Amino acid sequence: MAAAPPFVAYSTLTEVLVPAGDWLAVYSSLQALKGHVQEYPGCQRFDVFIRAEDNGDVRIHCYTTWDTPAQLEAFLERGYTFERLLFDLGEGLEAERLLVMEKVF
Which residues contact 105 (CB under 8 A, 6 or more apart)? Predict the structure, then answer.
């Protein structure tokens, strides 16, 4: 019986808490960003998960998934990332956490 090689993909996670008043601008910008990033070579996925907080703020987890580490590195160095979008949208919008991860199965 032959062993199958592991499935490997390379991802980023960006987490941010968006004030309620900024949510509509961030949401529409994320839609445009998803369409843009999915055109990059090697991009497998662009996923966004949210949770509305009791005060109306929105917690966002944004994941991008790539075929190779080189494609992920190129995106982080030169691509239009979620962090760059937040910076462009205005003061007070910045990522709380950024992780680079490897999916093994």
Answer: 6, 7
Q: What is the DSSP string of 38-74?
A: TTSTTEEEEEEEEEE-TTS-EEEEEEEEESSHHHHHH
Q: Which two tokens stand for residue 99?
A: 């992780």
Which has the closest alpha carbon to 16: 73, 57, 76?
Answer: 57
Question: Cα separation of 23 and 58, whole Å?
Answer: 7
Residue 1, H or E segment:
none
Nearest-angstrom CA–CA distance, 74 and 34: 17
pTM above 0.85, yes or no: yes
- Cα dihedral sign, 80-81-83-89: positive
pLDDT (tens digit, 9 = 90+) per residue, 20-55? Answer: 999 999 999 999 999 999 999 999 999 999 999 999
Neighbours of 76 (CB within 10 A): 15
